[in-house]
Write a sequence for this structure.
DNA sequence: GTTATATTTGAATAATGATTCATTAATCAG
DNA sequence: CTGATTAATGAATCATTATTCAAATATAAC
């Protein structure tokens, strides 16, 4: 008998993150990923069915983690909808804050998988959207948020805005420090841009 | 002598929009684009250097139009920064409102070109961001917008949010009617989500 | 140390699809 | 009408790479 040594699946996944981030999914070469992971080209296929399944795997992990985090936050009863919203934003940033490459893959490559509509992670993605919308609706019901805010539009808008900023941050942490982005989103999404004493 | 008949370049560009939108840039087949345009495969190469240059061409046109629209709006002196902001959002939506496929290409395929950094349209894109930031800064200076709003973060956030909503709209006009999106963005970006009489 | 079994290798394969180019078809000038 | 010139065609080419698999290697059991 012989047992697999090390964590080649993780090595390959991590290598793929780097290469996908730098070259994009279609520009990424399997040989390059293998090299980066320190394994032979063929070994990649012992751990993943094909190139696309590596991307699937990454998105599955990401969305599962996001969904889990969101479940935890949304179910809390000790904080207001507004605080939940802020917490949710923070959790997303926390997820990527140590891994700009993962952030780039996340913001850039999802539509390759969504196109087919069959992706396993889609259920987590949908949960994510629903959970966010629930927080908004709850806030409206509790009278904390404006009645004329459309929960679905709002969720998507904020998610899109975060994606865009996450991308800038990932490309240049210096120019877009995570803290100012987080702060910016809080101000904009929660309080809007108009000058008005609201806090 | 023989002169080129019709507008094959436009036909090809329009065909490419449809095919890129449906199959994505990398999934798009030149033969399919030619077919859709009603020309032979080889003819595509009489009008465009290669597949990528078709995409370049599309983005050049889009960003040039956006930039021009923005120039016009920003230079006006008869409306407030807030009104300018609303107008800018409307102009973007107006640009795509008759062409969901173009919207999909716009939101999904830009990063293929940005990666190389050499794209001709980038200067228009940068103008676009700068013009938006100028409106914000002007609004802050005039006391209409909050002092603690970061113009750069705000511009990117709103742009990202619009992209995300544009994508949903393009995929299903029914579920995300353009008007409710536009209205939603006004409320969120300008007034924020908090319940507070501000108008 | 030997054998059995599972893992790893990386060069060879095979498929794909962008691009080319020799050929054909239109149009125009005279 | 004829020849000259340019546009258009689409099958053949060629390059690129994901994927495969026969061979090599490592580990474990005895």
């Amino acid at each position: 008998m012989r047992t697999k040594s090390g964590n080649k699946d993780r090595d390959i996944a991590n290598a793929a993150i780097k290469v996908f981030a730098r070259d994009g999914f279609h520009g990424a070469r399997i040989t390059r990923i293998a090299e980066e992971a320190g394994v032979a080209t063929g070994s990649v296929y012992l751990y993943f069915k094909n190139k696309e399944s590596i991307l699937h795997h990454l998105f599955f992990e990401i969305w599962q983690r996001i969904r889990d985090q969101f479940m935890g936050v949304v179910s809390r009863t000790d904080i207001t909808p507004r605080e939940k919203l802020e917490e949710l934003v923070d959790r997303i940033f926390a997820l990527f804050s140590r891994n700009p490459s993962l952030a780039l893959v996340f913001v850039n490559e999802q539509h390759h998988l969504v196109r087919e509509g069959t992706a396993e992670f889609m259920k987590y993605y949908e949960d994510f959207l629903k959970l966010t919308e629930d927080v908004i609706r709850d806030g409206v019901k509790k009278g904390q948020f404006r009645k004329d805010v459309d929960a679905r539009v709002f969720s998507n808008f904020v998610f899109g805005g975060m994606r865009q900023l996450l991308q800038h941050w990932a490309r240049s942490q210096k120019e877009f420090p995570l803290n100012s982005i987080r702060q910016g989103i809080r101000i904009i999404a929660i309080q809007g841009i108009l000058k008005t004493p609201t806090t």
The mean pLDDT of chain B is 92.
